[in-house]
Amino acid sequence: MTQTAPQDRAAFEARLRAIGDARYHDKHPFHRRLHSGGCSPDEVRAWVINRYYYQSRIPMKDAAFMSRVSDPALRRAWRKRIEDHDGTDAREGGIARWLRLAQAVGLDPDYVASERGVLPATRFAVDAYVRFVRDMPLLDAVASSLTELFAPKIHAERIEGLLRHYDFADDAALSYFRKRLTEAPEDVAFGLAWVLDHADTREKQDAAAAALEFKTDVLWAQLDALWSAYVEPARIPPGAWRPGEGLLERAA
Amino acid sequence: MTQTAPQDRAAFEARLRAIGDARYHDKHPFHRRLHSGGCSPDEVRAWVINRYYYQSRIPMKDAAFMSRVSDPALRRAWRKRIEDHDGTDAREGGIARWLRLAQAVGLDPDYVASERGVLPATRFAVDAYVRFVRDMPLLDAVASSLTELFAPKIHAERIEGLLRHYDFADDAALSYFRKRLTEAPEDVAFGLAWVLDHADTREKQDAAAAALEFKTDVLWAQLDALWSAYVEPARIPPGAWRPGEGLLERAA
């Protein structure tokens, strides 16, 4: 069988970046609706509740990854991601910041943290991501994290759009996104270099690209589920959050 | 801590059946649309393509279950399910029959069997089911199969509705459903008795009920994804089947 030669480093990087151009969830209509002020308060709440589930699983995903890495240097480099989300004695983590956003949109943070009301389709997609990272080759696992390449742009658009269009939006409420603007580029520079170094055959490059596509599917499916359940005509599945549930007293 | 007493057998069975009344996917608007003739040919095709993925994973799910069962009698009783789907030397299995339905609606069976074009959300939901059966206690795994309790009604409605409303529908095309009318009740009588026998504490009854709810979520999420992608206004996610792809020559 003929072996196809690997793409050179620049061409392979360009191929990975093109996946973001074609499939990253900043192209999903829900994000346009959110950033342009088109979402109702309940649509924003549904997004906050469901996206919380994704946030909450990221450190579990990173722990699953580290549980398979025998190189202490790689584990050390990766550990920061868990600290960024879970926090340290000295600084608050991303999950706590996300719950401040929940509070700002009138949701009881305890309700959001309970994960009740999360759409089953959100769970299925997010759990698929955690399991992918737990089960697949390390290269695929790292490559699936590279959607962070495309994240700073969406975070910047989100800060700008939410501040302009929604009363709840202020620096405290949006601190999660502001913080990710500096955290994500550090993580992804490491991850991208690691993938470019380790994808040294065409087969591995193809696997890494497929892993990144898989991850864009995970993100896209969450917004499809959100739209299907909560944007008119809403078809909320049995057991999922219904407007009016889980509100802070003042908002109820 | 006070232990809540288990429900008696009849009350527990009624509780399980009530889950079907509240959450089984025969209540989803896609099924009403399908059985009443409201689906376009492409909507029927999208359903056949995506539901194939579910069918294809059922014997893998059953093998995952059997891989954890140390009792030869239980394995023997369960093995029939794999034979029903995969077939034997002497008789055709459910997957082959599903591909005949694919052909009847104008799809290339090889395209359908390739699993290309399956919605990511379908994969996430179905894969979650396979993993649930692989990872959870055996009682939960058996309980999750009890949606078959509710299946004969939906298969009967489907045969009746498809025959009345769609040109493609004939006995050969619908043989999958006709066959399940006799297969499913046998399986589920065994599974239900097993769950009623083994859920001998309130905690286990609660877990079994939660497992059955989880399975209704798996089925419901597939129809939500189908509606979101293919019913107007269609929002087909990147990479999924687009009308016109995978057709038989005569239908193209």
TrEMBL record, chains A, B:
Q: What is catalyzed by this enzyme?
A: 6-(2-amino-2-carboxyethyl)-7,8-dioxo-1,2,3,4,7,8-hexahydroquinoline-2,4-dicarboxylate + 3 O2 = pyrroloquinoline quinone + 2 H2O2 + 2 H2O + H(+)
- What pathway or pathways are given for this protein in its record? Cofactor biosynthesis; pyrroloquinoline quinone biosynthesis
> What is the native source organism of this protein?
Oceanicella actignis
Domain named Thiaminase-2/PQQC: residues: 14-224
* Molecular function terms from GO: pyrroloquinoline-quinone synthase activity
Q: Which UniProt keywords apply?
A: Oxidoreductase, PQQ biosynthesis
- One GO process term, biological-process aspect: pyrroloquinoline quinone biosynthetic process
Its Enzyme Commission number?
A: 1.3.3.11
Q: What is this protein's function?
A: Ring cyclization and eight-electron oxidation of 3a-(2-amino-2-carboxyethyl)-4,5-dioxo-4,5,6,7,8,9-hexahydroquinoline-7,9-dicarboxylic-acid to PQQ.
From the broadest rank down, the organism's phylogenetic lineage runs:
Bacteria, Pseudomonadati, Pseudomonadota, Alphaproteobacteria, Rhodobacterales
Query: What's the domain of life for this entry?
Result: Bacteria
What is this protein's name?
Answer: Pyrroloquinoline-quinone synthase
Q: What class of enzyme is it?
A: oxidoreductase
> Which family would the database say this protein is a member of?
Belongs to the PqqC family.
